[in-house]
Each structure stands twice: as structure tokens, then as C-alpha cells.
Amino acid sequence: ILLEWIRFRSGCVTRELTFDLGKKEDKLHLLLGLAAIAVDIDKAIRIIRNTEHEADVVPNLERAFCITKIQAEYIADIKLRNLNREYLMNRIAEHKQLEAEIADIKETLRDELKLKAMIIKSLQEIKKKYGKPRRTDIVEKEEVKTPKEDIFFENYNCRLVMTRGGYFKKLSVQSVRASDEQKLKEGDYVVYQEDTDNRGDVLFFTDKGQIYRARVADFELSKASQMGEYVPAKLQMDDDEHVVTCKMIYELIPEHHMVYVFENGKGLRVSMGAYEAKSRRRKISGAYSSDSPLAGAIYEGDKPVNIFIRSDSDRGMLIKSSLIPEKSTRTASGVQIMKLAKKSKVDLVTDRIEDVGQDALKCKKLALPSTGSPLGQLTFNF
Length: 382
Description:
Elements: H1 2-38, H2 41-50, H3 57-65, H4 69-76, H5 85-92, H6 94-110, H7 112-130, E1 157-163, E2 167-172, H8 173-178, E3 190-197, E4 201-206, E5 211-215, E6 221-222, E7 229-230, H9 231-234, E8 243-249, E9 257-262, E10 266-271, E11 283-284, E12 294-300, E13 306-311, E14 315-320, E15 335-336, E16 346-350, H10 353-356, E17 373-374
Parallel strand pairs: 2-6
Antiparallel strand pairs: 1-2, 1-3, 2-7, 4-5, 4-8, 5-11, 9-10, 9-12, 10-15, 13-14, 13-16, 14-17
Helix pairs in contact: 1-4, 1-5, 1-6, 1-7, 3-4, 6-7
């Protein structure tokens, strides 16, 4: 590219110099004509004054002083008051400088090195006048890291489904249209479902206080009529470690939060910025408190979300996520948000209010902690 630019720029400079050379040679030619009449100015004036016809002035000057037609026309057009020795001598004095400039241009056109020196000088002047500090770093060829082929994948729309039993499905749009009824093991139910695409990452939250991160593209397309992939086995989780829920993300946004609710009724919000790291980690240990088993994890984006919490003593409450305090330490135990009876525990945490039903609105609470409301005949789609 640089060599091609140098060739192009050399051509431009050559054309500029050739144009200047022509203009200077034309001017020198006229000055030499002035030098010819300077020998006898009075004779030139007489010819101009005494010639009967205007058309004969130029030919008469040509013959009298042995000059060209162009020189004669130039002299004939000079105002009479300028046809004096002082004016002519001042103009003729320019011819020595012109001859030097013409010689220099011709020398530059013949010498490629001088031509390139002109280009360099021009670039230095531009740099001095318009130059700004470099905004990017120059990376040596040896420092360039070639991306691994496995990070390139096809992107398409899909639906992600996670069950409480640890099964994960990535469904194509066609599969969702064909059937929306999920095949589940007896007693299993859907804890997470989202329509997204194949570009993001999935965070899997386990009952051991750990988060596993995997690409959506790492999972094969499944069907609603299939069980899906068993996440603990696929991600090689620790023995007796189970997935509680999951969430798809494109990036970790510090202004967003994870809301954790534990079986002992405590809960907290943790900024997603708490999980930022210099390198991409497959497993994040100590992601949240393990003092009590995790009952549920809900993602809170730009706005607070509705969360339904149920205890095994048949009580429940519907709250806004913003009621739950944020903690700067991600392993904090949290604060009591649901008062539990002795030996009772939280057994359900969900933001899928449509699966709880409209009767969940009767359990709405505006202050924490709360014992919740008796659920009675409330029907759940779990």
C-alpha cells in the first residue's frame, strides 16, 4: 500500500513541478523580450506610436528587435508610462532568479531522490501543522493473537429452557412453533425460560455457592419432546452439585443485579459487576453465600422485577426486587425477608408470575420481613 501511495504521490508532484516549470519558462521568455527592447526604448516607443494600423504594431516590433510574436504582443500591451528604463531594468532583473528556479525544477524532475525528498518535506510540514497524538497502539505481528476457531458459530434465534431437575434445552424457533409443551421428568418443572439468540452466555447457579459459565452455542439444539442436556454432567460439576436456575447474558453490566433468596428466608442483591474478571472464567467459586442452600436466583435488569416466594408451610408473598437490600460483598448472608415457622424453609422462588397465577397478587407485600400470606387453594403450574 505504501509503495503504491509513493508512486501515486510522485506522479502528483511531477505534474505540479511540470506545470510550474512551464509557467516560469513562459515568464522568462517574456522577460528576455523586454531585455531586447531595453537597448533602445525610444525606438520601441516610436514604432508603437508611428505605426498607422494597430495590427501592424506587433509585426513591426518583431522585425525591429528580432523577437517572437508572444514577446512583441506583451511589449505592445505595456502601458506607455511603464516603458522607461527603471521599470524595464527591475523586471529584467527577475530573469536570473527565474533561470535558477527553472534549473532547480529540471534537476528535481531528473533526480528521483530529490523528488522523494520533496514528498518527505511536505509530509513533515503537514505533520507539524495538523499532527495529533496517536490514539491507538501499534501491535507487532508476533503479538497478534489469532482467535480460536471454536469461538465462531452460527447465530440464530432460539428459546432456552431450564428445569429444576438440572436439564437444559435450546429450542429452535421451528421447534417452539411445532410444540410448546415440554417433556419433563415426573415432579420436575421449568424454572427459567427465555427467547434469545445463539450469541450469549448462560450462567448456571448451583446449590454449592458456585456459578458456571457456558456459551449458548456450546449446547446442541433440542426439541420440546426431548429431556434436554443434563447440565451437571455436561459442565463437569462437583459431586452432589445441582443447578438451581440459570440466566442468559451478553455481558456483565454492573448496574444490573442478581437477587439471591436462600432456604432460611434470607436474601440479598449483588451487583453483576462483582463477577467481573480479567479473564473469562468457566467457574466462579464463592459466588454467593453457602450458609444456607440457595432457593432461587433472579436476574434484575434496568427495572425491579416481581418475585414470588413460597415456603413449605404453605405461605407465600409477592414482592418487588427493589425491597431486597443490596450488599457489596457477594458472599454476605443477606437479611431476613421471609419470616419462617420453626423447621420451615423456602421451597420456591420465581419471577414467572404467569405460572403462579393472578391469585399471587393477593400475597403482595410492601415491607420486609414478612411472614407471607396463607396460600390456601392457590394453584401452581409447576
